[in-house]
Write a structure and sequence with these properties.
It is a single-pass membrane protein. Helices cover 27% and strands 16% of the residues. It is of the alpha+beta class. About 6% of the residues have low confidence. It binds protoporphyrin IX containing FE (HEM).
């Protein structure tokens, strides 16, 4: 299931509180069930519904716990030509603790 490829355009169709996908880095996450549970509140997550939350997710300084949590919602990846041009930190890719890679 997490081998699936979704374009940014496909992701953008899942933009409601009952169907909420977001992009963080190279990956696509279905966070529908998490929206109401988000410690930062549902509204802030819904602002990014169907869109790219990479910068917002990183700039808040989410804990390792939040990063591990994110991996549980992964449903697929962006096509290679739609991926951001940075190397995804391993803690998101494999849900294991490691230092972010240098750009
Ligand atoms: C689905 C992805 C997300 C997950 C799994 C997640 C998870 C969490 C968790 C576990 C916390 C508690 C503090 C911590 O452990 O770091 C938190 C806090 C917070 N999150 Fe998220 N978050 C997500 C997306 C976002 C996005 C896109 C934003 C947008 C800016 C955001 C904004 C915040 C803020 C502002 C807090 C701090 C709340 C406070 O301390 O009052 N989160 N998040």
């Amino acid at each position: 299931m997490s081998d699936a490829i979704f374009t940014r355009s496909e992701v953008s169709m899942h933009c409601g509180e009952d169907d909420c996908w977001i992009i963080v880095g190279n990956y696509v996450y279905d966070v529908t069930k998490f929206v109401d549970l988000h410690p930062g509140g549902p509204e802030i997550l819904l602002e990014f519904a169907g869109g790219d939350a990479t910068d917002a997710f990183e700039s808040v300084g989410h804990s390792m716990c939040a990063r591990m949590m994110l991996t549980k919602f992964k449903i697929g990846s962006l096509p290679e030509d739609e991926r951001p041009d940075f190397v995804q930190a391993e803690y998101i890719t494999h849900a294991k603790i490691s230092l972010p890679m240098a750009h």
